[in-house]
Write a structure and sequence with these properties.
heterodimer; A: alpha/beta; four-stranded parallel beta sheet; globular; B: alpha/beta; Rossmann fold
Chain lengths: 442, 382
């Protein structure tokens, strides 16, 4: 398939989110410095939600999915994907994973030196790799298990952080306690593993401070996104795809907190002064539960050229401010409650309504953010998020008549993307939106 | 064909027939997917566990509107059958957290193929002490859920009796596999696939009776294919519950003598402990003894030691069944198996076991496409 020819990244609207690229470079630099000083480095997945532990132990993290996304945005992922294929990993596997595996394989082949053209100086060899089971997707433990052949780094897989999204048949009172207990035990197991493998000791008081800071950060991040309900849209999805970096890769740091405070102030100013993403906002759309095409985020600007803006998205969203009982003061227990609460909040509602917590969220966002339509992106190599979209659409259609568009592509592999066909689909969708709005205006 | 095998053929040809007869007698039948569905609870509840299967021969059509083509084609096939009404006879269904594909299927199945009972069993991917405790708690919730459904308590004695029956079935299947160690094997791979397809559609006691009736027939050599020397193969892979692939491999001149498949040794090469708390015993066995790439076991040491820990049992199978080569047959979009494939290939090559890696859709037409590659593999190991 044909890929985008020129610009791949999107033009952003907010000044604060434009700073994120520099923060990403700083994260890479920290890893290079840690390597030079022979300090521990951990490979870590996005949304592991236990970053607090690593911050409290001063362990530098490398977000491997983030790095694959960066390679895609820089259009340099292909050699890594090809290397992974030559190593025997099928092309249809998660391309975050195959990009990372290809990179690790090349670095091993080069005796530890970075592959040529590696963005931001490359991913440093990890001291440990931290996966998760039963959370989000299978590659979150299978990828690092496979990567051991290249990194030789010990792997720790943490059992579970949240209940399945399909648990809505059950009464939460039956299982809440043992879920929270399990997460706590697993988090303590993680601390033990890190202490053994990195030589760092956990400072529990420090962890309490970090957890406090994380909770404060989540709150201000969440409040900022509430401001995005405004018309015209003050901050679009392409900005959020950058603005999520401090929350998902720097949680528990003062930098992350300060970033969202600053973002809050900027968005508030834009709302108060009615500064929108585009001057003539005709259509407000929801970027559905879909990972974006990192090699082609310019697609959001294409929508905007047609008068459509994405005020909100269902991916890389801040977790809701946690509802933790006052009596819970142990930082590990607070973390466990935070995950549980975040992942179960719409279950009761779903049990009594659509049967699907994701669809409940779709409906809430459509209402709260005054949206006119929904856009899905099917990333061909990610089964976890991108299978079940048809089902979500089917349920959604029972509860709303908003137009829905399904785009096809991938997260990293531009070979799965056709820009021209995508533009045609968008053009056609805009016509449908126009008709929809005209119909409803009558 | 003797009585036992004739019965297998009859049951396999119309797998749901006996379940429907039992329903007419007032029994309830519960569909189960994957080896991780803890069938012992269903039997203990006086219900009939019925292993749901796909069909390689039926093109998936209805599923197009419900589950994307990037989902594993076995899962899609099962859902397609469900949507077509092939599983409408079931009173309920139980789906475990095996992998992303199966998890996704639960949510869709619950809303599109409706039954009066449904349950999702969350199975940890790791085997830590906390994971075992969690899984035990999760199984107790499943037990309570079944108790509500049947309106009575499931006692520990019920569970112990059920465990004994299912352990008996596992032992009988292992006994059946012993006959495959002979040269030539006393039963073919395709026949074993049919036998397992048949017994997993029957109440466990009836399945055991069927297996017991088969044993003398196999022992007497009634099913030995004496047509000369042929390479002995093992098939490793995923939800290969249908016969076309195994049949093709055997038709092109090989003998499939052992497997590591969800519908093969994976479900039968372990026993559930019979002493103490039955729920804890089931949790421990399912988590620690089923070899599936969806379960991660912490494996300290070097990469080579890790490979040995993870795949040593495959080499043991190869030795015990005097295998000449192994086919890794991974259904496309099965991520857990695909991530392991390069490690398995590396391990088997280090043991000098010839290996062929195939990745294809769960369809008869795909089997046709693979024929040439299997033939070429057989030539290289001849």
């Amino acid at each position: 398939m044909e890929g985008p020819r020129e610009k791949t990244t999107a033009q952003k609207s907010t000044e604060t989110s434009k700073r994120v690229r520099l923060m990403v470079k700083d994260l890479a630099q920290k890893a290079h410095e840690a390597r030079a000083k022979q300090e521990p480095i951990a490979y870590l997945f996005i949304a592991s939600f236990y970053d607090d532990i690593l911050r409290a132990m001063d362990i530098v993290t490398v977000g491997t999915e983030n790095y694959a996304g960066l390679c895609a945005a820089k259009m340099v992922a292909e050699p890594f994907l090809a290397k992974a294929e030559s190593e025997g990993y099928p092309r249809n596997l998660c391309t975050y994973a195959t990009c990372g595996l290809g990179f690790d394989a090349m670095r091993r082949d080069l005796g530890g030196a970075m592959p040529p053209n590696a963005p931001d100086g490359g991913m440093e060899q990890p001291t440990v790799m931290l996966g998760t089971g039963m959370m989000i997707c299978d590659p979150r433990y299978k990828w690092y298990q496979a990567a051991q052949r290249y990194t030789g780094a010990p792997l720790h897989v943490l059992g579970l952080l949240n209940p399945s999204h399909y648990y809505t048949h059950a009464d939460f009172r039956e299982f809440r306690d043992y879920y929270i207990r399990y997460v706590m035990e697993e988090l303590r197991g993680l601390v033990e593993f890190l202490e053994q493998r990195t030589g760092r000791r956990m400072n529990w008081d420090r962890l309490s401070e970090v957890v406090d800071l994380s909770e404060k950060t989540i709150k201000v991040w969440h409040d900022t996104y509430q401001l995005r309900k405004a018309v015209p849209a003050p901050m679009p999805t392409e900005d959020a795809l950058s603005a999520m970096v401090p929350g998902y890769f720097m949680m528990g740091t003062q930098l992350a907190y300060d970033f969202y405070r600053e973002l809050y102030d900027e968005i508030k100013y834009r709302v108060d002064h009615k500064i929108g993403t585009i001057t003539d906002e005709k259509y407000r759309l929801l970027w559905a539960l879909s990972l974006p095409p990192w090699y082609g985020l310019v697609i959001f600007n294409y929508f905007e050229s047609r008068g459509a803006v994405f005020p909100i998205e269902m991916v890389y969203h801040p977790p809701p401010p946690p509802q933790i009982p006052d009596a819970v003061t142990d930082p590990i227990e607070r973390m466990a409650w935070r995950f549980y609460d975040a992942m179960t909040q719409r279950y009761e509602k779903a049990r009594n309504h659509t049967g699907d917590p994701w669809v409940e969220w779709f409906l809430e966002l459509i209402e709260d953010y005054k949206l006119d339509g929904v856009v899905f992106h099917q990333a061909m190599t990610c089964r976890t998020i991108h299978t079940g979209q048809l089902h979500q659409m089917n349920i959604l259609k029972k509860h709303t008549d908003k137009p829905v568009l399904l785009l096809e592509g991938d997260i990293v592999d531009v070979r799965n993307y056709n820009e021209e066909a995508t533009h045609k689909r968008i053009d056609f969708f805009i016509e449908i939106l126009e008709q929809y709005k005209a119909r409803h205006a009558q | 064909m003797s009585a036992g095998m004739a019965k297998v053929e009859e049951v396999f040809r119309d797998r749901s027939k006996r379940a429907r007869e039992l329903q007419a007698e007032g029994k309830k039948v519960i569909g189960c997917l994957c080896t991780f569905a803890p069938v012992e609870f269903i039997t203990a509840a006086g219900l009939v566990p019925y292993r749901m299967a796909g069909s390689m021969r039926k093109p998936a059509e209805l599923v197009e509107h419900h589950l994307e083509t990037i989902a594993c084609s076995f899962t899609r096939s099962v859902l397609d059958l469900g949507l077509a009404g092939d599983y409408s006879f079931l009173d309920g269904f139980v789906i475990p957290h095996s992998c992303d594909n199966i998890v996704k299927l639960y949510g869709i199945w619950a809303q599109t193929v409706k039954h009066e009972y449904g349950h999702f069993v969350n199975v940890p991917h790791t085997t830590s002490k906390a994971s075992l405790e969690f899984f035990e708690a999760e199984l107790n919730v499943f037990r309570k859920s079944l108790e509500r459904y049947i309106g009575r308590e499931i006692t520990d004695e019920d569970l112990h009796r059920s465990i004994a029956l299912h352990n008996r079935q596992r032992a009988l299947v292992r006994q059946l596999y012993e006959f495959r160690k002979e040269d030539p094997p006393m039963i073919s791979g395709a026949q074993v696939t049919r036998i397992i397809g048949a017994i997993t559609s029957l109440p466990v006691a009836e399945g055991n009776e069927l297996l017991e009736s088969l044993m003398p027939e196999v022992r007497e050599g009634r099913y030995v294919n004496k047509k000369g020397k042929a390479p002995r193969l093992m098939i490793y892979g995923t939800g290969n519950d249908d016969v076309p692939f195994v049949e093709m491999v055997e038709q092109v001149g090989a003998r499939v003598v052992v497997d590591d498949l969800c519908h093969g040794t994976r479900a039968y090469w372990f026993d559930v402990g019979t002493a103490g708390n039955p729920v804890a015993a089931i949790a421990k066995s399912y988590l620690e003894k089923i070899n599936c790439p969806r379960t991660y076991r912490q494996s300290p040491g070097t990469h080579q030691e890790d490979l040995e820990n993870r795949f040593g049992y495959l080499y043991q199978f190869a030795q015990d069944f005097k295998v000449d080569g192994i086919i890794l047959y991974v259904i496309m979009y099965c991520d857990t198996h695909a991530f392991d494939a390069p490690d398995i290939v590396e391990y088997l090559k280090s043991k000098r076991v010839p290996v062929l890696y195939l990745e294809e859709q769960y369809q008869t037409s795909a089997t046709g496409r693979l024929k040439t590659r299997v033939q070429a593999f057989l030539e290289t190991i001849a």
